[in-house]
Structures are given as C-alpha cells and as structure tokens.
Amino acid sequence: MTQSLKCRRNKPLFILAVAALIVICNCSCFAENYQPEIGVYGGELILSTISDPKSFNPILAKETSTTAVTGLLFEGLTRTNGITTEVEPNLAQSWEVDNSGLKWTFYLRKDVQWFDGEPFTADDVVFTFNELIYNPSIPNSPRDIFTIENKTFKVEKVDEFTVRFTLPVKFAPFLRGMAQEILPKHVLQQAVKKGEFNSTWTLDTHPKSVIGTGPFKLTKYLSGQKVILERNPRYWRKDKKGNSLPYLEKVIFLIVQSEDTALLKFQEGELDYYSLRGTDYPILKPQEKEGNFTVYETGPGWGTNFLVFNQNQGRDENSGLPYVEPKKLNWFTNKKFRQAVAHCIDKDSIVDIVMNGLGFHQTSAMSPSSGFFYNADVKKYDYDLDKAKALLKEAGFLDKDEDGVIEDREGNDIEFNLFTNSGNTQRVQIANIIRKDLETLGFKVHFMQLEFNNLVTKLNSTYDWDAIILGLTGGIEPHFGNNVWQSSGHLHMWYPKQKAPATSWEKKIDDIFNRGVQELDRDKRKRLYNEWQEIVADNVPFIYTVLPANLLAVRNKFGNLYPTSYGGAFHNLEEIFIKK
C-alpha cells in the first residue's frame, strides 16, 4: 500500500491511453453487470502497509496509514458506491431537503449498534459534528470541509433517530460529504470534557476500546508487525437473503519494510493483494496462472504526486525562530524559482525508468481519473533545463563565482534538504532522478528518507523541512480537498493554517472554493474549478510529477470481486467472500 496524505476522498471517468500500457481489464463494464452472489462465511484477507498507523482516531487522521484501518471501523450517514460513484444511504436510511436547499433532515437506521452493543442514535451524529469537528481545541481536517466563509452547519437532534442539518449557504457536495465518519458519544464525551480527546484511541489503546459501527472491529495491533481486524457480528448490513455481512472473518494488515518486501510476500503467497508498480508488471504478469492471481488495470492513479517547498512564514512558539530560514523562504516563495524547478522534472524518464512505461504525466491538481472536474488545459512544464536556467537568471539566481553552484542575489548557495518517505521505492527513485536534475542546474540537494509518520509530523506539526516529495489521495469532488487548498487549511502544506491569505492567488483560490461549494449549477462549478487548476498550474505550490497506472494483483480466491477505477479492489469488502 502506497502511503499518502489523506485528501478527503470519501471512499470511493476518464482513462488516458498510453502506447506502452497494456490494458488488462476495463472494469467499467462491471457497473451494469454487478449482481453480488450469496457468499459463505469464514477466511481472511491479508493486505500490507509500509507504515504503522499513527492512531485509531479517524477525526484526527490525515494519513492513509491510519485511514486504511479506520475506514473499516467507522461509517458515515452516506457512502459513495465504488462502481457507480453515486451517493447512497448508509447509516441514514433516507433524507429530505426543503425548498431552500438549506435544511436537510436525515432519518437514521434503527438497527445499527456500536461494537459494544449500544444503539446508534441522533446523539452520536450531533456529538460528532458539534463536539468534535467544530471543537476549536481538536485539530481536524473535516472542519475545513464543513466550514464555508467561516460559517458552520447547525446540527440538531429532532428525535432519537432523526437529525437536521441547517446549512449557512447552499453546499453542492453535501450528500457526498455526509460520508464523514460518525463517532460514539457514550464512549468519547468524557474525554472531550476532560480535554483528552486528542490523545484518545492512540496506538497504546486497548483494541476493545475502539468502538465503531463498521463491518470489522479492531482486535490486535502489534507495532511494526500487523493490525488485525475481525468480523463485527453486530453489523447491520445484510445480503439479499437476510444473512448478516460481512462474510470474511478477518482482515489483516501486515506492516512491511518496503514495497519490495510486499512484492516478495505476495509472490510467496503471504499476501492476497498487491498494488503493482510499473516495474513489477513484467515480473508478475507471467506468474498469473502459476500464482493463481489476476492483474487488473483501472487507469491512472486517483491521487496526486508532487514536490513541495516550505513557504511557511511562521515562527516556532517555543524558540521564536522562523520555521524556514529567511534566505530559503525568499527562494521558495519566488514563483520563477518554483517554475524553474517544474521544468527540471524529467517525467518521461520517470515513467520509463521508474514505472516501466506504465505511467502518466501529471499536470493538474486533479487526476485524469477524477472525471468531470478534471482540467487538462492548464499550463504545462516541459522538461527543459535551458528554460529552467533562464527563469532562474530572471529571478536573480546565477552561478556568479562559476563554482558550479547557483547563488541568490546575496551570494548564498542554493542548498536545501529534500525528504520523502522510506519504504516507498518508487518515490525514492523519483526523488533521486529529480535530485540529479536539480544538481545539474547548480543546486545543492541533500536527499534523505524518513519513516512515513515522522515525515507527516514534520509536515503538519514541527514544520522543520525544506522540500518534500509526497502524494495526496484524490477523488471526484474538488471541495473535499478544501483542507489542502484553503489558505487556512490544516493540509495547506506549503504554509498551513494561515490567518489571512499570504498571496493574492491563494486569496483567489479561497474565493473559488467558497463560491464553488455553494454553486449548484454543475457547469458553473466546472468553470470555477477549472480556474482553480489553472491558478495552481501557474503558481506551482505543488510541482506535479507523474501518476502510476493503477495496477492491482489479487488472488483468484475471492467471490464478488469487482475492481473499479474509483473503488479499487475491495470497495465492496463486506460482500467479498472466499470461494470454496
């Protein structure tokens, strides 16, 4: 499993063609043909991850190492169908909206229980929003999503199984956003009152204390080894014959050192699923029959991959020192500097060398797989070192003493650290290619690999970094990246949690996202988000690299397996079973 930061995708179309890409399975055909079989109980699904989770608290989570686990423990009022991408009922069985479009009433299921047997009620929904998401002492990304122009939703209990949301303005992706995980009031309210919620459900927590409503519950966590989830016998969802789901008894995440280790474990039969890199394709494809697995291709990856520079203008509260050295801040906030670096990304070499030709150039803030809101007509940065040098010269960066190292106007050598997460061999290879080209330009680049959770801590807590190569999960709804794109957002990586926009273009993006979420006309929303992607391409806060082809290898032992571009291999996990 590739580790990325969590841009609000809500679980889960357009496919690019590449001459070198062999299309193994066009999974869009399953949308009309999917008719789940009645399964059999038992067995386990074994997956891998190259990082331990940071916690088991979905409200605080910002990384996929955590949400890969919590996504099976907790649920929202709605969910997005992994095949059709349509919103459908989940913990809410139905809803209605008044003529103003501002008052939404949700009628909750009456047959849902928490893991401990307590009933799920309207109190839990009201608690999750009013006491967790909208609690200023709890740092969380959902608040960025559910706050518009500094206005929050009014969430109130109508009766035990009815909740009403009153919106300050129209909110176009509201139903899709209601996939937000709901947490139990009876378990967590005391922690909130004591100011201890931010340290609740840590990795030291006893597994039985983590209470959700999802198809699986946490039963064991062994640091650096595995996370074990077991079937929730109280799960409310049933198959068409009235049998309780899920069918699988266990889901196990093996924590491995690297993607290379995961590949070996898959080849040896220890894993049921492996997300291929392009270089793995010629290794695994010929082994399909003997290994009893199938390789599926579902188009470009859904996320984004990029190089980002630290433009944080703040100071450390304890030391009083700036997070970024003033000279470096001057470099990183210079648009021509960033554009020059964008011209240094040799995407063809990355696709050929790192991905064996099974990859795609990324130019926009959304993946081509995102569909309707994707804008392909943005400014592009061809690999051109001469153009990069010309841009640097215009901005005052020259090798004045002809020692092979570029200096700024004050004579400071351009020298900085570049981080990415260890274990992700593709990112490490990409970082090395980029580092070499930057050194060809005349930069001094010190490349280091960090454990994923340590890297995330630097990114959103200590802010002690210069440049990072990383990725974000993606989705079909632009607003669910609001925690990244609003200048005040917790994942506005290059300068998070700004009290006021630091630049005019960031202010413009704030305005676009505030207007876009309120615009109910789909075509008008499209024009707004097109403009956002154009602004991002021009100002390059993220310098985009490449997207891998989404290649999935899965054992041939599973029934009801219907991989899709949006949902991946196990979007319908509660329906999947092991064939006898």
Overview of this protein structure:
With 580 residues, this protein is of the alpha+beta class. 26% of the residues lie in helices and 20% in strands. It is built from 18 helices and 23 strands. The strands form 7 sheets. It has a 5-stranded mixed β-sheet. The chain has a 4-stranded mixed β-sheet with strand order 1-12-11-10, with no helix packed on it. Helix 3 runs parallel beside helix 6 (185-193) and helix 17 (504-516) packs antiparallel against helix 18 (522-539). The longest helix has 18 residues, at 522-539. It is globular, with a radius of gyration of 24 Å. Residues 7-31 have low confidence and may be disordered.
Give the SSE map.
Blueprint (H helix, E strand, L loop, with lengths): L29 H4 L10 E6 L14 H7 L7 E3 L6 E3 L2 E6 L5 E6 L13 H12 L8 H4 L1 E2 L2 E2 L1 E6 L2 E5 L7 H4 L7 H9 L22 E7 L3 E6 L18 E6 L3 H9 L5 E4 L4 H4 L3 H4 L1 E8 L3 E6 L16 H7 L2 H8 L4 H8 L4 E3 L23 H10 L20 E7 L3 H17 L2 E7 L1 H11 L4 E6 L9 H4 L18 H13 L5 H18 L2 E3 L1 E10 L2 E2 L17 E2 L2
Parallel strand pairs: 1-12, 17-18, 17-19
Antiparallel strand pairs: 2-3, 4-5, 5-9, 6-7, 8-9, 10-11, 11-12, 13-21, 14-21, 15-19, 15-20, 16-21, 22-23
Helix pairs in contact: 3-6, 11-13, 17-18
